[in-house]
Amino acid sequence: MEKTLKLSSQNLNFYYGTVQALHDISLDFYSNHVTALIGPSGCGKSTFLRCINRMNDLIPETKVDGKIIFDGQDIYAHSLDVVLLRKRIGMVFQKPNPFPKSIFENVAYGLKVNGIRDKRLISETVEESLIKSALWDEVKDRLYESALSLSGGQQQRLCIARALAVSPEILLMDEPASALDPIATQKIEDLILQLKELYTIIIVTHNMQQAARVSDFTAFFYMGKLIEMDDTETLFTRPKLKQTEDYITGRFG
Amino acid sequence: MQNIYFHKRRKIVEKIFFGIFRLSSAINALALFIIIYFIVGKGMQAISWTFLTEMPTDSMTKGGILPCIIGTFILSLCSIGIAFPIGVSSAIYLNEYAKSGTVLRIIRLCINNLAGVPSVVFGLFGLAFFVIWLNLGVSLISGSLTLAVLTLPVIIGATEEALKAVPHTYREASLALGATKWQTIYKVVLPTALPGILTGGILGLARAAGETAPIMFTAAVFYNPSLPSSIFSKIMALPYHIYVLATAGTEIEKTRPLQYGTALVLIVLVLGMNLIAIIYRSKLRRRMR
Amino acid sequence: MIIFKRQTTEKTMQWLFFTIAAASIVILIMIMIFLFIEGIPIFKKISIINFIFGKYWYPTSSPPDFGILPLITASIVVTFLSSLIAVPLGVMTAIYLSEIASTTMREIVKPVVEMLAALPSVVIGFFGMVVFAPFLQETFDIATGLNMFNASIMLAFMAIPTICSISEDAISSVPKTLKEASLSLGATHFETITRVVLPAALSGITTGVILGMARVIGETMVVLMVAGGAALMPSSIFDPVRPMPASIAAEMAEAPFRGDHYFALFATGIVLFIFTFAFNMIADYISNKYKQSGERV
Fold it and tell me: Which band of pLDDT confidence, cut at 50, 70 and 90, is reported for residue B289?
């Protein structure tokens, strides 16, 4: 498949107070591909993911240097509007976090805050997003029930639909299946493979089988550093570094 | 590009509202500042060594407020002396022993309601029960008991917060060593929670010192030529003194400096105690993290 | 044997603490009983309906009039007016503290609110009397600065700390991940606050508002000193009024012991108690419902 560069991190460093959590990360992401970030707990993979939509801005006393270039623009540039950035880079969180509103309102939320008033357009987009997230058939008769009445796996797919509704270009997924049972996990993985036709996906996972199943590229993080990045098959079968090999064969982590 | 205009408007709306939120916080600070500014500014002129250490003279138009200061101290200390052990024990039951259920629910409901009873109703209760029914008369003891009832919820609340902040692992560690529940509470939980509990005591003390309505019918008198000598003495107190001088005296305008002076002494006392508690508590909270 | 003895101590301690904790129930019940004992006799002289809906409160004329409608009206109107000021200010300050303020500003503003709560009511009443009343009188050119408007403003600043601190707790306990979800969809911080955070914290905020109102309706010294004292139905916000607590506090000293006036004041206390009791029960109901649904969020 042809590779188009979508986003690239250049010498990114990140600090929580005086503790450096990311060291000099340079990493490229390509359109319509899935990139998995793997590594043991606390290795910085989630922190890195949250740098991409500047979610770490919310944590006081953090500092970033280096660049993340998205469509030719540094997202940490002073002139960049973080609200518009986040509309273009969607995020799915570790635990399903639907708003305590109806299923419909959850998906319509992003459209409404972005100023779309046309009711027909809204309901079309809601339906389309729920279809894309493979939830439509399960919820089409109960759109106005509370999102909290759904099962965990359904809630997570609802959160994916909610993210898709604002038509992002990149989808960040932070261990999206870690709180789910195997069947729900299977559905989310199938969904990821479908969605990469339309979006650039970056997924954090601690599950190496999952990374192997869904991703085209895999980046291995360890202690805040990017150890190795390659296409998934190569990384899992012929890793260049001993450290990577130790981790993927389960000798530490 | 209508979208860009829309987006700009969102940003402006956010700026305006955040400005309003900031402003409303500033209004609170301003209100506090203005009140303190006037009381301190005008009260300072009245404050002197004589004012703090002498009896009132010339039918309250001159002299000092010593009996009021002493009265307020004794009243609030006595009421805390009564309320503190009861409050701390109640909180121990609620937080350490009680299992969730109807009984706990009812006790909590009563404490919440007790906290919401108007201070003048406490005054009525004190009058009907302590002064009349128990025949304690208008006295230090009646006033202290009434104030004790009023400060009880304050102390229970603060103690519970302090007990909740004790990590669960402490209790488990102690129980695992074969200590009984009471030993665990006495030797592990209470010492850890002690600073927080004492903070609650200080807050209760401040609350009792500042209340007027509950002591109006139960303990306070306008003028008492002698300092309190027994628990059955009628006493003078700072808050009641301010009220009487400001509303009922014959020479309200002439005693204005005395009123300001008394108010200053009262807020220094009450806010001082609160400030100590606030600073102490925020230090504790930081340590607990 | 040792085990047996330790078990006994345990049981004794548990019962001891339970008995002491039950004191709160006993006290609350006793408050009700004694209010009723001293208040009920007035209803031999006047029916409950005439007492509550009577328009005239002239307890010392002969024959006396014991209608507390003007007092109830004054209490309700003063509570309403002060809520108009205290609710927006209290909630907005809570939003500022929990969502916008930097750590430094928080550490300044939060103690300010706590100090405001700690000011003795007699000091606020005194301030309203000697500083704010003359100011109102001059600014608005009215007969007296001691009126409903003055009392409402003073009371508002007594309710703000209650409303603010309970609302702040409610807002801070909204899960952070809901906020992040909203922001990640391209909502501004303000939109996130109004559309996600506030709706999720609504029951907590409501509880705070109700408890703030309960504090206002029961507050005594401020209304006693600044509301003006006229037991008449108000027709403008600059009219002097006499809310229930003010009437009780002002007249109890002069009311002959266990005379009709005395009983009537206790009966007013019952009405006041019922008001605050109702406010507290509603607040309790809402916050309990919130706790249950809170777990699901």
Answer: low
**What's the CATH number of domain B51-288, 1.10.3720.10, 3.20.20.70, 1.20.950.20, 2.40.30.100?**
1.10.3720.10
Calculate mean pLDDT across residues B176-189: 89
Whole-angstrom distance, CA of residue A201 vs CA of residue A30: 9
Strand partners, A65: A13
List C-alpha distances in Å: B46 to B33, B227, B270. 20, 22, 19
Neighbours of chain C (3+ CB pairs under 8 A): A, B
Domain C48-296, CATH among 1.20.1050.10, 1.10.3720.10, 3.40.50.620, 3.40.50.980 = 1.10.3720.10
Q: Does C200 touch chain A (CB under 8 A)?
A: yes
Apex CA C42: angle with CA C39 and CA C43, to 5°? 105
C40/C117 Cα distance (integer angstroms): 35
Q: Does C186 touch chain A (CB under 8 A)?
A: yes
Average pLDDT, chain C: 91
User: Could you tell me the maximum CA-CA distance found in chain C, to the nearest angstrom?
Assistant: 84
| Closest C-alpha among A193, A195, A203, A146 to residue A167 | A195
Q: Where does the pLDDT of residue C297 fall: very low under 50, low under 70, confident under 90, or very high at 90 and above?
A: very low
Backbone angles phi, psi at A81, to 5 degrees: -90, 115
The string of pLDDT tens digits covering residues C59-108 is: 888 888 999 999 999 999 999 999 999 999 999 999 999 999 998 999 89
Residue where the block lists tokens 């098959």: A233
Cβ within 8 Å, pair B124-C28: no
A155 pLDDT above the threshold of 60: yes
Interface of C with B in 269-288 (CB under 8 A): 269, 272-273, 276-277, 279-281, 283-284
Q: What is the pairing mode between strands B56-57 and B62-63?
A: antiparallel
What's the CA angle centered on A88, arms A191 and A96, to 5 degrees? 45
CB contact under 8 A, C196 and A159: no
Q: What are phi and psi of A56, to 5 degrees?
A: -70, -10
By the 8 A CB rule, do C179 and C193 touch? no
Minimal-distance CA residue of chain C relative to B278: C111
Q: Give the CA count within 13 Å in the CB-facing half-sphere of B100.
A: 0
Please answer yes or no on whether A97 and C199 come within 8 Å at the CB atom. no
B282: amino acid identity, one letter:
S
Band of pLDDT at residue A90, cut at 50, 70 and 90: very high
**Are C28 and B113 in contact, with CB atoms under 8 Å apart?**
yes
Q: CA triplet A174, A178, A184: central angle to 5 degrees?
A: 110
Whether B61 shows a pLDDT value over 90: the answer reads: no
